[in-house]
Each structure stands twice: as structure tokens, then as C-alpha cells.
Write a structure and sequence with these properties.
- The chain is an alpha+beta fold and 404 residues long.
- The chain is 48% helix and 16% strand.
- The protein is built from eight helices and ten strands.
- The strands form three sheets. A five-stranded antiparallel sheet has the order 1-3-5-4-2, with helices on both faces.
- Strand 9 and strand 10 form a beta hairpin.
- The N and C termini lie far apart (190 Å).
Length: 404
């Protein structure tokens, strides 16, 4: 199936020297349409070789162009950056250029690409080459762009979003194609039959939403990051690390309208203006899907679980302490009761002993008194007392008179 837009691909290059030499100085891949590697060339913010007529030559020296790329690269904050160039390949449909007149059509294709690059990448350093040496002989253009602008600033990678590039170039074709070629542009997309399985195919945005849902489902089922990654892998999602292990990129092979592809997305990324601190753009699934946030999620759950068990242990310990305190209180209470009972028993015993002692003393006193009385009663009266009694009795008789 044909790719629906003109731009087929865009990718980064670690060596601008190799890429420029590949585009301009390699032999033609096929002689089906032409034996020339480059049919037309141009560029922005770069010096190009000219022919005797004063026009930019289709023959360029890749090393000469790379030297200028390197000069701009040295103005960067990090001149030893990993990626030195960004490339785009713009392939035209046969309905747009049938290659029946390569000389004229290559110049027309160059004009369209130049208009597009001037509109969207005029601030960048770039070299453009129009070719038709592929196996199919289709007219196409290579755009090699320096990752550093002439002012020393980095070209943001989000400017090379493939969907945006295709949309912008289709708009350019809609606006400029008829002016350049004199023919009306009919979008090749409209001439392509719709796929019967189009509703079963996954777009990148749909895949990202499904991935978010899957991640959230797995998070609540596992307790650590190792099991989390294992569960993702079982469902076809792999995770790679970047930024020295601080960030993640999610990968999954899915069925798209362009065939089976590996889709990937960063966890979260923000491009911030270093001077003002302004957030210029945000990319990725979202901050809650970053490695640090997921690790913190599991750590928080673990802390909650530990706190729960600590509370249970504290409650159990407190319960034991309470039971021990109650037991000690009961012992103290029983001891006090025993002490009171002992004191009462001792007091009652003492009272009984005292009462018995008093009773014994009283009986002893009574016995002594009775003994004294008996002894006194049985003792004979003294003589003087007997004489006094007799005299008394005589006196009483005399007073009464003689008896008759």
C-alpha cells in the first residue's frame, strides 16, 4: 500500500560527514532513469558549488559541505553532541512527477522543496538534493539539516514530527504545485482505496491511550517495579532507559495502517527555556508515567502497608499492655481486699480475746469476793463483841419489864 503523504521518513544521523557524502558523492543506485546521482541541488545558510553558468551545480562535494556543518556545530554548547544531522526524504508520487522529463521535473521538485524548507526551516543550515536513481526511478529529494542553527542554538527535535511534516508538505503542495508545474495537484490520498481492516488498525494516539490504561491496570496489581516491568513485557510492552537510567521509553509492536510497526513513546519530557524557565513543549505519556513517579507510587504503597502493620502491632501491644495493666490492677485490688479482710479478722480476734479476758477477770473477781464473804461469815465473833451483845440483850429485857 502506498504511503499517503509525500514525506516518507525522517531520522537523525550521528555523522553529518557520512550522510552528506552518501547523498552527493555515492554512485547512482540504478541507471534505469539516469546515471546521475543528483539531478538538482540547493541549500540554506550554506555555500554551494556553482557551475560555469553561475547556477548551483548538481555536483557537490560532501566533505566541503560537511566542513561548513562542522563550523556551525562548534558554536553549540556541546559541539561533541551525539547527533549531528537530521534528514528528511520527500518522495513524489508518479501522478505528481512521471519522470518523463527529468531535467524540468527535477527543477520543479527542487522549487517545491525549497519553498517548503524556506517556510518551515529557514533558520536552519541545510542542503537539498533531488534524485531519481532508486530502483523504482521515482523522483525524490533528500534534505540534510544541521542539528545546530547558525546562531549556535539547537534545532528542537519536535519540529521533525513526521505527522506534522507530512501535513505541512501537503499544504505546500496544495498551495504551490500548480504555480510551479502549471498542473492542478490531486492529492494521491484520495485515489487510494480504503482498507477493509481500517477500523482494526491502531493509530499512535490510540496506542498511547491504551498503553496508559494498561500501565494503570498493572500498577494496582503488583507491589514492586520489577513485577511491573515483567507484567508489561508479558503484554508485549518493553521499556528502555535513557538519560543514564533516569527516564523510560515505552515500546510495543502494533498493527497500524502502515503495517506492523514498533511504536515508542517517552514517559515524559519538557523543553524549557533556560533563560526564562518557560515551558515550550511537553511530550510523552505524562508525568505520572515516569520512572520516578512509578517508583514513588510503589514506595508510598509500601510505606502505607508498613504503617498498617505497625498500627496492628501497636494495637496488639497496646492491648497486651492494657490486659497486663488490668491484671495488675485486679491483683492490687485483690491484695487490698485480702489486707482489709486480714485487718478485720485480726481486729475481731483481738476484740474476742479482750472480751474473754474481761470476762475471765470479772469471774475471778466475783470468785474472790465470794471467797472473802464466805470466809468472813464463817469466822467466830470476838469476845468483847459477844459480851456487848449479851449486855445489849439484857438492857432490852430490863426496859421491857419483868415477865409475867
Amino acid at each position: 500500500m502506498k504511503v499517503p503523504m509525500s514525506i516518507l521518513q525522517t531520522h537523525t544521523c550521528q555523522s553529518s560527514y557520512n550522510r552528506l557524502r552518501y547523498v552527493f558523492n555515492k554512485p547512482a543506485h540504478s541507471y534505469q532513469k539516469t546515471d546521475k546521482r543528483v539531478l538538482a541541488a540547493s541549500g540554506f545558510n550554506i555555500k554551494m558549488l556553482h557551475n560555469s553558468g553561475g547556477c548551483i551545480s548538481s555536483v557537490q562535494n560532501g566533505a566541503y559541505l560537511e566542513k561548513q556543518f562542522r563550523t556551525v556545530l562548534k558554536r553549540a554548547h556541546n559541539p561533541h553532541r551525539r547527533y549531528q544531522a537530521q534528514t528528511m526524504i520527500i518522495s513524489f508520487d508518479p501522478s505528481e512527477f512521471d519522470t518523463s522529463d527529468l531535467k524540468a521535473q527535477s527543477q520543479q521538485a527542487l522549487q517545491l522543496v525549497q519553498h517548503y524548507v524556506r517556510k518551515h526551516f529557514a533558520d536552519c543550515q541545510s542542503a537539498i538534493a533531488v534524485q531519481s536513481d532508486g530502483e523504482g526511478g521515482k523522483l525524490h529529494a533528500h534534505v540534510v539539516m544541521n542539528t545546530i542553527k547558525p546562531n549556535g542554538k539547537t534545532v528542537p527535535t519536535n519540529r521533525f514530527n513526521i505527522n506534522k511534516l507530512r501535513k505541512d508538505f501537503d499544504e505546500e503542495m496544495q498551495t504551490s504545485y500548480q504555480k510551479v508545474t502549471g498542473r492542478q495537484w490531486t492529492n494521491p490520498i484520495h485515489n487510494q482505496p480504503k482498507r477493509k481492516d481500517i477500523h482494526n488498525l491502531t493509530t499512535k494516539s490510540e496506542w498511547q491511550q491504551q498503553l496508559k490504561k494498561l500501565i494503570n491496570q498493572i500498577k494496582v496489581k503488583v507491589t514492586n517495579i520489577t513485577d511491573f516491568l515483567h507484567q508489561l513485557e508479558q503484554r508485549g510492552v518493553t521499556v528502555t532507559e535513557r538519560q543514564k537510567g533516569k527516564s523510560w521509553t515505552y515500546h510495543q509492536v502494533v498493527n497500524t495502517k502502515d503495517g506492523v510497526k514498533e511504536l515508542k513513546v517517552r514517559d515524559f519530557y519538557q523543553r524549557v527555556d533556560k533563560q526564562t524557565g518557560e515551558i515550550k513543549s511537553s511530550r510523552g505519556l505524562g508525568q505520572s508515567f515516569t520512572k520516578s513517579e512509578i517508583e514513588q507510587y510503589f514506595n508510598r504503597n509500601k510505606e502505607k502497608e508498613n504503617q498498617y502493620y505497625d498500627r496492628r502491632e501497636d494495637n496488639g501491644l497496646e492491648k497486651v499492655k492494657t490486659m497486663a495493666a488490668d491484671a495488675r490492677a485486679r491483683v492490687r485490688q485483690q491484695r487490698r481486699i485480702n489486707e482489709v479482710a486480714q485487718q478485720r479478722l485480726e481486729k475481731a480476734t483481738h476484740d474476742e480475746e479482750r472480751k474473754a479476758a474481761k470476762q475471765k477477770a470479772r469471774l475471778f473477781d466475783q470468785k474472790q469476793h465470794e471467797t472473802r464473804r464466805t470466809a468472813k461469815f464463817n469466822q467466830p465473833a470476838p469476845k468483847t463483841q459477844r459480851q456487848g451483845g449479851q449486855e445489849q440483850r439484857r438492857s432490852s429485857k430490863e426496859a421491857e419489864g419483868p415477865e409475867f
